[in-house]
Amino acid sequence: MKTENLEIIVRSGEGREAFLTLPEHGSPRAVVLIVHGMTEHKERYRELAAILADAGYAAVCYDQAGHGATLPEERRTGLLAEKGGSRQVVQDALSIRDWIDQRLPGVPCLLFGHSFGSLVARACMIDEGERFAGFVLSGTASHPGLKGRVGRILATIAAGLRGPSKRSPRLLSLTIGSYNRRIEAPRTDFDWLSSDREEVDAYVADPACGFVPCTAFFRDLATLLLRVSSFKRLTGRLSNRPVLLLSGADDPVGKYGRGAAQVQELLNRAGVADVRSIVYDGARHELIHERIRKKVFTDLQRWLNRQIARQREAVG
Question: I need a surface site. Which of 7, 215, 256, 300 has the fewest CB within 10 A?
Answer without folding.
Answer: 7
